[in-house]
Amino acid sequence: MRIDRWPRLTxxxxxxxxxxxxxxPDYERPEVAQPGEFRSQITxxxxxxxxxxxxxxxxxxxxLQKLISQTLQNNxxxxxxxxxxxxxxxxxGVAKSEGLPQVNxxxxxGGQKSFLPTPDEIGTAEFASVGGVIEAAWEFDIxxxxxxxxxxxxxxxxxxxxxxxxxxxxxxxxxxxxxxxLLQLDRELAIAEESQGVFNKTHExxxxxxxxxxxxxxxxxxxxxxxxxTGARIADLKRQIAEQENALSVLAGGYPHAIERxxxxxxxxMPETPVGLTTDLIKRRPDIRRxxxxxxxxxxxxxxxxxxxxxxxxxxxxxxxxGVNGQGGLDGTFGLWQAGLGLAGPLFTGGRLxxxxxxxxxxxxxxxxxxxxxxxxxxxxxxxALTAQQTLVERRASLESQVAAMRQAVELADTRYRAGxxxxxxxxxxxxxxFPAEAELARVQEAQLVAVVSxxxxxxxxxxxxxxQWNRPG
Length: 474
Description:
Blueprint: H1 2-18, H2 55-58, H3 62-74, H4 76-97, E1 102-117, E2 122-140, H5 145-211, H6 218-251, H7 281-284, H8 286-307, E3 312-326, E4 331-344, H9 352-418, H10 424-458
Helix pairs in contact: 3-5, 4-5, 5-6, 5-8, 5-10, 6-10, 8-9, 9-10
Coiled coil: 220-247
Protein name: Efflux transporter outer membrane subunit
Pfam family, one: OEP
């Protein structure tokens, strides 16, 4: 008969458990006003977006694709993010486990020997015991405390997954930006080496004219100074190239080494960059999606705090067997069991529960403000990238025209000097103006490529890729 009572007791309280309610407000996304278009947007808004394309479709340089793929496979920051996801997933299991029966076992075995005085002599008594007890408890989540805690833990898991996707997108953009910076330094080095050759020829020409008595020593020294300045610039550029290669090596999870190049800076293709609808930015950007999961977690924690004001109700049981063997007729085995309904709740906490509730509400307000700020930052970053694209086109066109004119000026000054119709000042001045302008043009070409990278990141590029697809180029 005793064995049948436990199922009957459980069945009596299952309806009570199922009838429980979940305390606290259900999550609703706050309203956020959004403009119809991004500032500096040139083309009309449409559904197409650069963010819909995979990164290897945007950056089609094979060497860059290889670098990005290695970075996504080996970067240690990404490994840290993956480990934190697993931690968050384990915490979801911890939260869910509180709503399931908890069973513990306690076994024991031992002996005892006692000395007992008698009228004639001191006697002894020996006892030995062995047994075990199984305890079980099951909290009924009537007020939804466990459900809200599980909801908060699950939101934290989703937030960590968005952190990982944000890191992957940042790694793609950092690798691409660093690669384009490397190509720009290569281009500047080539310009400096070209200028070194030109200044060397000019120095030789002035030296020959000086030795022939056709000119003074002044142009020789001026040409030598320009030559030495270019040599110093070349040494500095080689240092910067090595440092940039080292930075990209570490980004890709390797020790410092040379970085493979593909297409030169001037051959890099500029892809089409439609931005899409502004309303789609919320669903594409991983940092915005993470901020929303933080709001979901904060909302769930409010419900858990409210549920703590109510008593916890559950079942508890105990069953065991104990065997005792001893002298003097004490020999036998007996069992025990116990089951009951438990209730535990706060009566007076000195304001602790109220303070926890107020803290959770304040955290909700913080998460909402952070969500709105994240959206504003996303629009700012997108607008910055669009503005850069628009203005750099005009700047590049002006610099290309300037460089072409300066090259022509160098040729004319050299021809006039050889014909004796111009001084060495014209030659040196024309050369010294040309090469910095070419270097500035190279920096603008790099800035245009980086603007594409920034726009891809700002729009949440690759948002529709599965996690397994991010490393596609092998």
